[in-house]
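[Structure tokenization] protein backbone as discrete codes
[Encoding] learned vocabulary of local backbone shapes
[Protein] chain in single-letter code, fold in tokens
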Amino acid sequence: MTETDLHAKFQQFPDAVREKVETALLDAKIALKVKAAEILVDKGEMAEHAVTTAGRIGAKSGEVSELTTILPLKPNGAAHLRKFFRLIGGNLAGAGQVGTLHNMRFVFLDNDTKLLFATAFDGEWDAYIDDFATKIPEMMDYLFSNVEGWPGITAPDVKDFIVKYQIPAEAWFVAHPGLTVAEGHRLKRQEAAVQRFLSDLN
């Protein structure tokens, strides 16, 4: 039987059967590529990017952890937040006071009824929430007071509230897992000092 004959016979199978076969073949193809990549990849690089736990919840790669929540918004909560985000031009630079924060973003979902809050940070989950509570509590409460049931960043049950809505990442990649925010700032200062030194030589 030729390949054309096999293909024609396959096309006669019920749609559900064809779909299962095609899915199985695609999965096998991807699995084979992943296995080949694992054999060829540098073992040290694989170890450097290993995904572990961020503590109570979430994933961690090296020094960097992730947190993603989808939170229910109060009526007009999205409109209130949008007005604030427009006022600051979408720039949340003040959050840098936390000191361990790589990035964070706010996205409105489901016709403005839900808020996706996602962030990457250095270290363990519990310590990160504590940093929010001690370093920018007013900002956290201003933003999240638009969320249904928000207890306040300094409330004893705030961590349980966050865990309730956090969705842990199933997969996680960090380009430089060993580079903390503090280390990044140190390298920038070092580079600036070198450039000043070179400039003074000229």
